[in-house]
């Protein structure tokens, strides 16, 4: 398996180089040359494995012979030591042997250490990058722009790792209070994780990171690596849970189509789902559910892509006006909008609708969703209304609701209890450096910490 730049198919790299370099030398996004197709018979055996072992088998297709099978299995078992349930609003768990009578499940991806789906990719990436760096003796400065969840997951995954410093850039006032507390308390005073609050939006943070990578001298000076989903090493592991979850859902309801609703922002999670589908995972359609920051929905509906400045919403992790993975999605579909439309259905919702649905669903069922999951769930309902055929729906539940306690408590008029992992963040003093959204400010800060 080799990778090429989405801007130049002739520019090639192996997985290890693509992961550690993050972007191609021409600034393009690394893409796998082919998406490996896994025959249905092999898929069936993957579905019978634990998620960790299934992930290791899938990872082998993308990582060439960099890791031997035992090493990959050990890596994935270590990374994925937590649960990934599919549950109904009543809390019944999908078990292919005894499926509950339901057509809708939440695919809860938030049971990892930082309580968001980003842990899945961050933990694979962290372990894979660490082995590669140990082998080559290289070091890296990781830059990660976050609108709430990625930064915490990456900080946690690389915490204490030799030869690595992580710089998390978040938009000041653009993440929830709990997320901010989490982002600013990773590790103790001498930790290798450094947090910067940027006076700007997430798009400004993302532009800063990309600006740093666009300067080869800067990249070389600090050995920069990106841990955002511009890095193919972040996107590939985001396909693993779609393969495993779809095999389980299909085993429970073999006669029904499978439709997955993904709350979306930077489109990395959708890209992971599309890769899974192209590998042969039994997924019929994706609902791509956005808040009002929805240039991808415009593209699906009108055929024109117009990135624009993001606006703040309740579902802050999706406040992205220029999604990073848009070119990857076009590339996966050979720029063919009609084919893309057959697979992806886009829809967006404003905050009032989101808050009202979150409250109503909680009162009626007792199941509390985070605002992002709520957007995904409304997407499921809207799609099902238009396509009342027999299907199983999975709504991706991206983050634990307690990460958004500040807004949720107002919406449901109740106090939420904090899971232990979040409560711990409140026992640690915040460490954060404010910076202006300029490359000079970022470079100045990197130099003051690293040189
Ligand atoms: N929604 C993300 C933004 C970063 O996007 P990614 O696709 O690079 O992970 C977040 O929560 O930080």
From TrEMBL:
It comes from the Bacteria. The keyword S-adenosyl-L-methionine does not apply. Residues 107-398 form the Tryptophan synthase beta chain-like PALP domain. Pfam families: PALP (PF00291), Thr_synth_N (PF14821). SUPFAM superfamilies: Tryptophan synthase beta subunit-like PLP-dependent enzymes. Pathway: Amino-acid biosynthesis; L-threonine biosynthesis; L-threonine from L-aspartate: step 5/5. Residues 10-80 form the Threonine synthase N-terminal domain. The keyword Phosphoprotein does not apply. It catalyses: O-phospho-L-homoserine + H2O = L-threonine + phosphate. Keywords: Amino-acid biosynthesis, Lyase, Pyridoxal phosphate, Threonine biosynthesis. Belongs to the threonine synthase family. PANTHER family: THREONINE SYNTHASE FAMILY MEMBER (PTHR42690), THREONINE SYNTHASE-LIKE 2 (PTHR42690:SF1). This is Threonine synthase. It comes from Algimonas porphyrae. The gene is thrC.
């Amino acid at each position: 398996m080799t990778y090429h730049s989405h801007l130049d198919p002739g520019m090639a790299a192996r997985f290890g180089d693509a992961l550690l370099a993050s972007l191609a030398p021409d600034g393009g996004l690394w893409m796998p040359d082919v998406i490996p197709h896994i025959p249905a018979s092999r898929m069936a055996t993957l579905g019978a494995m634990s998620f960790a072992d299934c992930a290791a088998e899938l990872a082998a297709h993308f990582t060439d012979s960099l890791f031997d099978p035992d090493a990959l299995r050990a890596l994935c078992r270590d990374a994925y030591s937590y649960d990934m349930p599919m549950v109904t609003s009543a809390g019944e768990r999908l078990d292919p042997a005894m499926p509950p009578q339901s057509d809708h499940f939440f695919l809860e991806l938030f049971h990892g250490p930082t309580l968001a789906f980003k842990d899945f990719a961050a933990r694979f990436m962290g372990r894979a990058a660490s082995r590669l760096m140990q082998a080559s003796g290289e070091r890296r400065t990781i830059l990660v722009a976050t609108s709430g969840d990625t930064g915490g997951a990456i900080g946690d995954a690389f915490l204490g790792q030799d030869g690595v410093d992580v710089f998390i850039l978040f938009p000041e006032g653009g993440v929830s209070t709990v997320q901010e507390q989490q982002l600013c308390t990773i590790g103790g005073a001498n930790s290798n994780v450094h947090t910067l609050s940027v006076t700007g939006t997430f798009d400004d943070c993302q532009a800063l990171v990309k600006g740093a990578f666009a300067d080869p001298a800067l990249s070389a000076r600090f050995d920069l690596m990106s841990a955002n989903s511009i890095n193919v090493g972040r996107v590939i592991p985001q396909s693993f849970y779609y393969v495993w979850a779809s095999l389980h859902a299909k085993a429970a309801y073999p006669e029904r189509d499978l439709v997955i609703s993904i709350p979306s922002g930077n489109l990395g999670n959708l890209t992971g789902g599309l890769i899974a589908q192209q590998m042969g995972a039994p997924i019929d359609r994706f609902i791509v559910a956005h808040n009002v920051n929805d240039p991808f929905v415009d593209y699906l509906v009108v055929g024109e892509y117009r990135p624009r400045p993001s606006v703040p919403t309740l579902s802050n992790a999706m406040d992205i006006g220029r999604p990073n993975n848009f070119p990857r999605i076009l590339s996966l579909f050979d720029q063919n909008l009609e084919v893309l439309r057959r697979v992806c259905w886009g829809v967006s919702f404003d905050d009032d609708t989101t808050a009202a649905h979150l409250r109503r669903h909680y009162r009626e069922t007792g199941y509390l969703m985070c605002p992002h999951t709520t957007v995904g769930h409304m997407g499921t309902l809207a799609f099902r209304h238009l396509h009342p055929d027999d299907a199983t729906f999975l709504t991706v539940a991206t983050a634990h609701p307690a990460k958004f306690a500040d807004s949720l408590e107002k919406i449901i008029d109740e106090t939420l209890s904090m899971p232990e992992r979040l409560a711990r963040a409140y026992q640690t003093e915040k460490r954060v450096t404010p910076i202006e959204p300029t490359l000079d400010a970022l470079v100045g800060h990197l130099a003051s910490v690293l040189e």
